[in-house]
Amino acid sequence: QREGLVTATGDVYLSQGLVESEEFLEIRADAAVLFLARRPAEAEAAPNGVPATGPYEEPFPVEIPEPAPAPGAGRGLLGISSGLQANVSGAYLRGNVVLTRGERMIRASELYYDFENDRALILDAVMRAIAPDRDIPIYVRAREVRQLSTTEYFARNATISSSEFFTPHVHIGAERVFLTDITPRDPAGRITGFEAGRFRAYDTTLNVEGVPVAYWPYAAGDFR
Fold this sequence. Notes:
mainly beta, 11 strands, eleven-stranded antiparallel sheet
């Protein structure tokens, strides 16, 4: 541990929000670097007593439970048996990263999450969501995915299909894809209406066995 940083290895688990909420966030990974938020007393103060770094905003608390120690091991993460409760502003995670929020899931090799702004950069990502009209999974694979907010995503060099295989029989490819979740929810995150969303895709192809058979420069629409 360094000032403002915590390094964790071995079955790292982070969570944010209320467990009963549909927006409860969970992240698992092999290793992580956590960026701790500065408290008001740590901010540099000007001669008049006003913090030089500007007004302080308390970030969302993130709970980091300690994994169970292996037989014969020491006390584990930071030696705190009850886990660490800290104000974490961001986290970089690497190795078998899995992020879940409700029925949405993202697997990745690397991920940086900004907890204060609900933004993320995700590399080598596989996103899974459930198509509400047919109750089947939809997979989006991309070299790079950016979470712009809790409801907005941007993917680069993406493939979209209903197959969990790395090379699906039929898939849609796109240079850039924007996805927005517009499902109505109550303050607790519970769905209060039809599941719905919008998409925009650029330089799109229809591919069969990895071979493009059709092309269109732009596509957009709504789904529910």
